[in-house]
Amino acid sequence: MGMLGYYIRKFWMFVKNEVLVLPSRIMVFLFFLVLLLLPVFTQDPYLLRILILTSIFAILAASWDLLSGFTGQMNFGHALFFGVGAYTAALLNLHAHLPPWGSVPVGALGAVLAGLIIGIPCLRLRGTYLALTTLAFPIILMGIVFTIPSITGGELGISGLERLARSRVANYYITVVIMLVVCTIMWKITNSNTGIIFHAIREDEVAVRSSGINTTRYKLLAFCLSGFFAGIAGGLYAHFMRIAGPSTLEVSMSFQVVIWAVFGGIVTIYGPIGAVFILYPLLEFFRFWPEYRTLMFAIVILLILLYMPDGFFPWIRDKIETECPRCKIRNIATRKTCRICAAEIE
Amino acid sequence: MKRPMILMTTLMAFLIAMTISFPAMGANTIKIGVIGPMQFVQGKGHWNGATMAAEEINARGGVKVGKKKMKIELIKADSNEFLNPTDATNAMELLLSRDKVDFVVGGFRSEAVLAMQDIAMDYKTIFIGCGASHTQLCLRLAEDYDRYKYWFRLTPFNDQLLGRTTFIHLGTVGAILKKSLNIPQVKVAIVAEKAMWVDSMIAAAKGLIPKMGMELAGVWQPSQAATDVSAELSAIQRTEAPLIFTIFSASVGIPFAKQAGELKIPAVQVGINVEAQKDGFWEATQGMGNYVMTMNTYARGVEQTELTKPFVDKYIERFGETPTYTADTYTAIIHMLAPVIEQAGTLDANKLIPIMETREFIGTANLVKMVSTPEGKPIHDLKWGPGYATSLGVQWQDGKLVGVWPNKWKATPEAPEITYKGIVPYKIPPWVIEKYKK
Amino acid sequence: MALDIIIAGLINGSTYALLAIGFSLIFGVARIVNIAHTAFYMVASYCIFLIVQKFGYHPIVGMLVAVPLITLLGLICYKLFIDPIREHEAAVLIGTIALAIAIQEIMLLIFTGDYLSVPALIQGYFTIFDVKVFYQQLLTFVVALIILGALRLLLMNTKLGVAVRATANDREVANLMGINESRVAMITMGISVGLAAVTGAVVVPLTTISPFMWMHPLIMMMAVVVLGGLGSIKGSFAGAYILGFAEALVVFLIPMGAFLKGSVALSIMILVLLIRPEGLFGIAFEEER
Questions:
Q1: Of A2, A341, B292, B427, which residue is most buried, by most CB within 10 angstroms?
Q2: B136: closest chain A residue by CA
């Protein structure tokens, strides 16, 4: 009993000192809480469906940011990983009878392979060349998909896949938990040594190389990691929709991912995730005006870009938090002195 | 700087408010969801046909369900199928869980309908397909009847039968060419867009063409969205084939017809060209799509059953264009659902399905009957054949889309000869006649 | 057959060249990847459709009205949406994508998704070496050459041209030399959109108009520009014809694989980039500070 009390007190101290001090961390905490507890309050299947799809796309957007935001390799063909993950999981499920908890990870490995295949030619390319080249890959794959319809199902895709779970609520929990876990892993990666190297490669690759780090290996690693997580999103999508079709490889899907990520703020993992959670339900909400839906979406993007060119979430974060000039720790904007070093903040 | 924040918060508040509650509509109406690509001709057809049916029924007081009369309430759902199958499933889910419809009609793109069908079956709601031809949609009933029995396909008939019908057209036109132009052996060039339903048709065509006494000149497969096919046309012209067998469902049908007409390629086009079914085809090809023949369900002036003319005339009067086959949502509601509901006296799907399964009734395009597999398992697919659904062969003749088939057609030597009222003879383009009558 | 391929290749190539030159110009000068370039081409097509089909004027009138109108539209869009965020490259990319989508939706609203078409400037076709060629296709080829010539004249022999080239070379130093860099960017934007409009005028009678017609040319155009090397006009020209021939080869040699012509063209682009990462004539520019 005493031990339990001790742990509860420790947990409370942690929450009080680490989480509650910054509004951004409070928001993340609430986000986790709301997502996990939502089915207790409402089981509306439509709402759950939207949130499941949002979670899947959130994984996709975050994985893009890992590659293009942090490592600076602008990837305009992210739909490739999504599609390869979806198709591989579908084929494994249908022909090898692998259940979803097997086919999704193995499908993601297929996407990793794709990541290597496109990463190697892209090593020597920079900036816009890289962006436009990566755009080409999903299109080429789509051509191949149409050429071997006996395996890939052509324009109808592969259908008749197993569900992730029996009920809608179970589906919801599986997807949301996977999303939270995967995104936390990605977040941890960016905070680790590897993450710092990724970031450095984006800023100045020559300097990194002259420090003795093999940038080729790290760039390929970024492609593979990004591919893996995007492949997981693809596999989950295929099993939720129970169909894996060429729409997963379309150029518009690649563009969507980039729009979400840049809207939310690149070089942050939480930016794209938050952006998807705002924009995807917003697009569904606009269903009330079916003809104007996409137009309103595009206008929202344009307006946000005008006012917040660095992304939505960095802008919000800058409004509610400031950095201490001395110790560089973030503080809530209403404070006069830093919470760690007590220096004055304007 | 304050403006975006206020905008955002209002938007979020709205979103939360909307998702939480939604007032249930009147419980004294029969709710029918109409789902289709509403921004395009096919979806508009879905909605127009359904609207006409609902208005007609409500004008006479509604449908008698047991003791009371209930009116029909239509709920429109834009599936956006062409651009985004995920959107289509979201729209279907919205119809079923939020709007709580009793029946669903519509659907068009097979890839999307396969997914939408699953959702409707989850909710055990009757879904009448008016647009997707994929055979798999009905074969699913043979594998799992209890789950998929809520699905019925009213139009078009499945893609295997589509193939069979279009080969009949091919043979008919080939025979006309052989006879009028004195060509000993007609060469056929197959031009098809790249799609899965097309592949099986091409394979079948390769086998059938020699059996029909014709020769295969070659197969060309441009992409669905191709806008310049002059290269393919040059190659086809070199083979000197007088007959081009087209299999197009997407936009490539327009530039193909236009460029073939402009270049005066000495060949006739017959087969499937979905763009050529629309009234706007003439303008889209700048008149160069003259003499193109394709399959269609309705044509001005042609009467397949006694219900065709009143329907087609009323549709043209109200909407200004000939109905496409997706407008058969009209038949689905007024001839397929309403009478069965009145007969059973209830909206319960389980009581309606046995009646719908065995019933034979006159629709606006044909006599409708649902079929079973040879082993006797019901698959709720449309029955094809003389006296049942045959569709029409239509040809553009000087700005008008007229019916040219069935014209004295016999399916088998023992079958009755069919010619619908209003069918006119097929015309060969003058420049083709000129080339061969030398 | 070889003649078919050559002629088809020349014609395809000219279309791509017209589009690619405009795109390459604005990228070279202002480092803006204008994804909405083909969207402006689409607006020009609709504009011509409106004037010719609805108001009944001759296609030439349509062209003469559309080109300045669309150029104006392009400049306004640039000033409103792109100029403020020019410093953030990623934001510009998304901005132009969103602009293209917005334009597509507006066209969809006004004209619906039906396919439309425009009559040719010069109707009919002629036969050369047994191959039938539309007059309009010949016109495309001729116009492409004229534009290239005119652009070269502009860039080499006029003061404006020198300013444009200087800005493309090194923006900051051009500023130091007294060239109003943002005004040059604006003028280049105008030329670029104007070229897109001219392409629309010339190429549109050969294709069908739909609100989604901007996506496919966009991809091919970007492939051409990357292949030729970003920022190099003659590179875009060469790349356009190479990919045009590649497409023609696919259509003629593998008729059943005609839908693959896009994929083949893109694969060629990737192969070339493997060997020469800056494209054929591209300038390997250093990271800009």
A1: B292
A2: A159
